[in-house]
Amino acid sequence: MFTDVTFYRLPGEEFALRRENLLSKIPENTVTVLFAGKAPIASLDEAYPFLPNRNFFYLCGIEQEESVLVLIKRASNRVPDADPDDLSAPKALAPELLSRTEVRLYIYPREPEKEKWTGRRLSVEEAQEISGISDVRELSVYESDLDELIESGLSIAWDETDHSHMHAALEKKSAQTEQFDEVIDISSVVTLLRMVKSPREIEAITRAVQVTEEALAVMKEQLHPGITEREVYAILESEMIRRGSFFQGFKTIVAGGENTLCLHYPTPTATIEDGQMLQIDMGARAAGYSADISRAYAVSGDGTRDRRQQALFDLICECKRTALEAIRPGATLADVHEATKRTAAAGLRHMGLIPPAEPDPAEAVKKYYWHNTLHHLGLDVHDVCDREMPFVPGMVFAVEPGIYIPEWGFGFRVEDDVLVTEDGSEYLSHPQR
Fold it and tell me: What residues contact 206, with CB distance under 8 A and at least 6 apart?
């Protein structure tokens, strides 16, 4: 199977719906400004790869540097009371408030000379199609337009989590206006919107999962004792790139043997010896959305696990079953984590790693159970969330119980992506057996 996500993206109407949702939660007489950001400089004239601010991208789908999204919500117009004796007056025009909203997108214009060096910029028409925004303007008029909006008496709203240079400039500008004390932070509102995925978002994550699993399948066919971590890394990256995932959700983790005891092992250079375990943690991206899959393989002639490896794999799978049973509407991250830790503690006690007389197994399990069981998944691999919010249908999680046993010289996690449904949960990925 070959899943190609090179040109896959969500339609403009999806972003339009998100903007409508946000605008419905913002007070009237407000101008909201969000920035795409700019790639940080790596060295001299070389920049790191650019990825737009995720809240900005969530609301318009634009991936071009220094673009600006402006959402305007003006004071409502009160519709006059209809004359009850005027039979021609539409009854729908009884007294009601109708907010006036406007959306603008500011982008750099096409410049053939600059594009010779840095690549083709979006045309106005392309930006309109991607974002679903009809009013697309040149970036050069953004400052004057914003001054006019502020001078008209609109309050300012922004994303407090944005640390871009353009956001810093807006903070400086707002400090010079009377509206500074009335600035609204929309980041928590956008977080709540991002926590619950639409059907199109779930489809995007599913495609990212498919790319990830296909890359794993290709790599597994080439796995053998004596292969190096860097060779495994190169195969996985190559296969994801071949399918159109040029920038992954996070740096792929490839760790063999004792390196599995480093959760985010950064330097895949070692040789994987016969009989060692191999930890993979990776996630392709599709339409901006990330997968997050972890697999643990025994690297041996026939791929079978030894007694300890199998015992640990079985316990982690049992932990994952516990987590899946606990994931349902109304549950919380803490509920699932605590239930899974209880399963881990019971298993570790059975394996002799927690003494039978241990008075506090919930505390003792922390020696081997090092990280949280699950996290929200979406535009960010550890997606934004309110950690106390009960689960609702449409939330997506990466579920990753992991147990690490230094005295055995290895440990690992087995991770899959899971959707909350109306009556429980279901896998978006295919669990490792």
Answer: 428
Q: Does residue 100 sit in the same domain as residue 227?
A: no
In this structure, are 188 and 40 located in the same domain?
A: yes
Q: pLDDT-based confidence at 91, cuts 50/70/90? A: very low
54 is a domain residue: yes
**289-290 and 136-138 beta bridge pairing:** unpaired
Q: Supply the DSSP string of 73-122, one letter for each residue.
A: EEEEEEPPPPPTT-TTS-GGGSS-EEEEEEEEEEEPPP-HHHHHHH-PPP
CATH number of the domain where residue 294 is located: 3.90.230.10
Domain count, the chain: 2
Q: Is 401 helix (H, G, I), strand (E, B) or coil?
A: coil
One-letter amino acid identity for 130? I
The 8-class DSSP code of residue 381 comes to S
Nearest to 411 by CA among 271, 309, 272, 299: 309
Secondary structure E strands in 235-331: 253-256, 276-282, 285-286, 289-290, 293-299
Identify whether residues 135 and 22 lie together within a single domain. yes
What's the whole-model pTM score?
Answer: 0.94
Q: Are 179 and 221 part of one and the same domain?
A: no
- Residue 4 falls within a domain, yes or no? no
Say whether both 128 and 93 belong to one domain: yes
Statement to judge: residues 174 and 255 lie in one domain:
no
Summarize the chain as % helix, strand, coil (round to 5): 40, 20, 40
- 205-238 pLDDT tens trace: 999 999 999 999 999 999 999 999 999 999 999 9
pLDDT 10s digits, 31-77 = 999 999 999 999 998 999 999 999 999 999 999 999 999 999 998 76
Answer whether residue 392 shows pLDDT above 60. Answer: yes
Q: What is the predicted pLDDT for the residue at 85?
A: 54
291 and 395: one domain?
yes
Amino acid residing at 229: E
Q: Residue 18 in contact with residue 61, Cβ under 8 Å? A: no
- 185 secondary structure, DSSP code: E
Contact call for residues 45 and 68 (beta carbons, < 8 A): no
- Kindly report each contact of residues 348-357 with a partner whose C-beta sits within 8 Å and lies 24 or more positions away, as own/partner: 348/315, 348/403, 351/311, 351/315, 353/405
Instruction: Determine the pLDDT at residue 175.
Output: 84
Q: Torsions phi, psi of 176, nearest 5?
A: -95, 5
* Residue 175 belongs to domain spanning: 12-195
Asked if residue 335 belongs to a domain, the reply is yes
pLDDT beyond 60 at 87: no
